[in-house]
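Q: Given only this backbone (218 positions), what sequence would you predict?
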């Protein structure tokens, strides 16, 4: 039987609620800035900037813009993958994948107050997290099949999410194929936060879509 993963003494209350992961290619009806603004009005509590294909210079400029947009909102600003971009714009933290910078090094670079999350695609990865990284949350990815997560090894499903919940006290961010039709079940299975991409980025009305999920967290 595996041992329960040890975490920070106090659970990070910032990792709770609707977590917007951006994708400019999926912003059909609005530009990225408008999507973020409308999503926040609908109840988004965390914003992650994800840029997989643009140059470092462009990524940095977009990050600066979003950082300014989120100023005075108390909404954590997370950078996907790129610790250097997070440092450059003084973002609140980073979300890392299994092939990104080692967690311990990211923690040393970003400091104790930074939010650091890590994607878990296989169960064994949960128990290989070094305690020295002192991470703030895990991203369980993907819960359901989704075209925005094409490089993953495993579909967790509800039972997989429950298994992860039993084995860790870390805040869990669930991602992958989430919408108003399954959000309640995912939260009931143990997710502290649900991350959405196309559900908000591709929405005609991101504010209204976010409001459909928000009550499930009450």
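A: Predicted residues:
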């Amino acid at each position: 039987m595996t041992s329960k993963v040890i975490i920070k003494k106090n659970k990070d209350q910032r990792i709770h609620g609707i977590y917007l992961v951006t994708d400019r290619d999926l912003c059909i009806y609005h530009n990225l800035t408008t999507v973020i603004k409308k999503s926040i009005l609908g109840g988004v509590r965390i914003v992650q900037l994800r840029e997989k294909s643009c140059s470092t210079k462009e990524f940095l400029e977009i990050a600066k813009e979003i950082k300014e947009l989120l100023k005075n909102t108390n909404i954590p600003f997370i950078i996907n993958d790129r610790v250097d971009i997070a440092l450059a714009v003084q973002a609140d933290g980073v979300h890392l994948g299994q092939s990104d910078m080692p967690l311990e090094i990211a923690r040393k670079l970003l400091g104790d107050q930074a939010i650091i999350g890590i994607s878990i695609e296989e169960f064994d990865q949960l128990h290989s997290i070094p305690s020295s990284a002192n991470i703030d949350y895990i991203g369980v990815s993907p819960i359901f099949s989704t075209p925005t997560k094409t490089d993953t090894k495993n579909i967790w499903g509800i039972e997989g999410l429950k298994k992860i919940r039993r084995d860790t006290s870390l805040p869990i961010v669930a991602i992958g194929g989430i919408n108003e039709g399954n959000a309640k079940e995912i939260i009931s299975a143990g997710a502290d936060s649900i991350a959405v991409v196309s559900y908000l980025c591709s929405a005609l009305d991101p504010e209204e879509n976010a409001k459909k999920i928000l009550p499930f967290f009450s």
